[in-house]
């Protein structure tokens, strides 16, 4: 481990959260808010309204914010929306899908896993067959962008199939919300889960669930948890304007400021375009160095890219990480068990010039370490 005091500058985080935030977003955390104060309640209400609007769910959907990291919100969504007698079909092609299955297990929710390889998106045809074969399945759990590789699963097509079978869809859109299009008016889902510290470019500490109002209303009494009960959180907030239990006030304030910037910069299409540019500059630059990305371009989301590590036997991720870090960039280890890889995030308050410099830092790091990449 490196001592925090050894960072004389703020490194650029090319990680999928926490990520690099704007100075304006960080400055919003300089105020101490009272959790009972009307001004803080108004801040929460505005954050929620903006989040529902980003999903185009105004009028039909509600936003339930929840303290904690994204996983807390995933666990809350499964526990609240899936009845105790329900059964979840979990679609897996990476670590977050596996985590969703473990959540079902921990909550005692019956579930079945359909797994494809890390570089194979789930197809709507497969889901169609699985739902036709098992009428006991009440819900389908899908990871929109599987952050363990960066693969994009075909959400709209899968949502159509799930709706046609009359089942409920729960989407982990943690690493896509705010950047990849999700239209609640056109894509049927019961709940969609995301968090403050990913593509919205807030700081970590708050998850949220965008739920179809009727689905949430039907879910009362399902949750086996006190703190992770979205029905109770929503009911209490509707009645009082306040959070149940201490809110992450500074995180909410930062998210509010981040959402203002999201809108000012052009909303979701502009965020998508920025990350797409970042991703393209990154992949092209790394290709010039001889480093190939793991996924085919057609299934790669512009969120995080997995690269094959150099074949040079001298390569060690820890040394590479340290050498890149010394140049001001924080990378992410790979999450594949069979292959030596590393990941570079495209999200956060960074732009293509930062990605160019990151590629230069990677090149210089390999030169330092005397590792050949070509
Ligand atoms: C980040 C992320 C989560 C939540 O992880 P936390 O460590 O709890 O923040 C869940 N699903 C996906 C796809 C993610 O990218």
UniProtKB/TrEMBL annotation:
E.C. code: 2.6.1.37
Enzyme class: transferase
Cofactors, names only: pyridoxal 5'-phosphate
A GO molecular-function annotation: 2-aminoethylphosphonate-pyruvate transaminase activity
Domain Aminotransferase class V: 69-296
Keywords assigned: Aminotransferase, Pyridoxal phosphate, Pyruvate, Transferase
Coiled-coil stretches: none
Matches recorded under InterPro entries: Aminotrans_V_dom (IPR000192), NH2EtPonate_pyrv_transaminase (IPR012703), PyrdxlP-dep_Trfase (IPR015424), PyrdxlP-dep_Trfase_major (IPR015421), PyrdxlP-dep_Trfase_small (IPR015422), SP_NH2Trfase/AEP_transaminase (IPR024169)
PTM-bearing positions, type N6-(pyridoxal phosphate)lysine: 198
Pfam families xrefs: Aminotran_5
Protein family per UniProt: Belongs to the class-V pyridoxal-phosphate-dependent aminotransferase family. PhnW subfamily.
Protein name as annotated: 2-aminoethylphosphonate--pyruvate transaminase
Organism: Methylobacterium goesingense
Lineage: Bacteria, Pseudomonadati, Pseudomonadota, Alphaproteobacteria, Hyphomicrobiales
């Amino acid at each position: 481990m490196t001592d925090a005091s050894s960072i004389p500058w703020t490194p650029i985080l090319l990680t999928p959260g926490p990520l690099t935030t704007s100075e304006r977003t960080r400055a919003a955390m300089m105020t101490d808010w009272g959790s009972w104060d009307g001004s803080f309640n108004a801040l929460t209400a505005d954050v929620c309204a903006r989040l529902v609007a980003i999903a185009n769910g105004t009028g039909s959907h509600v936003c339930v914010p929840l303290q904690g990291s994204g996983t807390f919100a995933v666990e809350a969504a499964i526990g609240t929306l899936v009845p105790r007698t329900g059964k979840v079909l979990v679609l897996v092609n990476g670590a977050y899908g596996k985590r969703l299955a473990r959540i079902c297990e921990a909550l005692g929710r019956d579930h079945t896993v359909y797994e494809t390889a890390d570089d194979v998106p789930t197809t709507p045809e497969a889901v169609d067959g699985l739902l036709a074969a098992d009428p006991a399945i009440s819900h389908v759990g899908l990871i929109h962008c599987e952050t363990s590789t960066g693969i994009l699963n075909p959400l709209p097509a899968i949502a159509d199939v799930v709706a046609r079978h009359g089942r409920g869809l729960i989407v982990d859109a943690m690493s896509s919300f705010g950047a990849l299009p999700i239209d609640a008016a056109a894509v049927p889902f019961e709940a969609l889960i995301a968090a403050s510290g990913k593509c919205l470019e807030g700081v970590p500490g708050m998850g949220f669930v965008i739920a179809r109002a009727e689905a949430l209303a039907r879910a009362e009494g399902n949750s086996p948890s006190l703190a992770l009960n979205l029905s109770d959180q929503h009911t209490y907030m509707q009645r009082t304007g306040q959070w149940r239990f201490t809110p992450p006030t500074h995180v909410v304030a930062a998210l509010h400021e981040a959402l203002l910037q999201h809108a000012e910069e052009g909303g979701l299409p502009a965020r998508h375009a920025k990350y797409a540019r970042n991703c393209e500059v990154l992949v092209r630059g790394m290709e010039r160095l001889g480093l190939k990305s793991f996924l085919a371009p057609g299934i790669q989301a512009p969120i995080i890219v997995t690269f094959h590590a150099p074949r040079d036997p001298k390569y060690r991720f820890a040394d590479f990480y340290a050498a890149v870090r010394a140049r001001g960039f924080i990378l992410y280890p790979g999450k594949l068990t069979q292959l030596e890889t590393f990941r570079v995030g495209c999200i956060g308050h960074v732009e293509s010039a930062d990605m160019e410099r990151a590629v230069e830092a990677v090149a210089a790091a390999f030169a330092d370490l005397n590792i050949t990449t070509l």
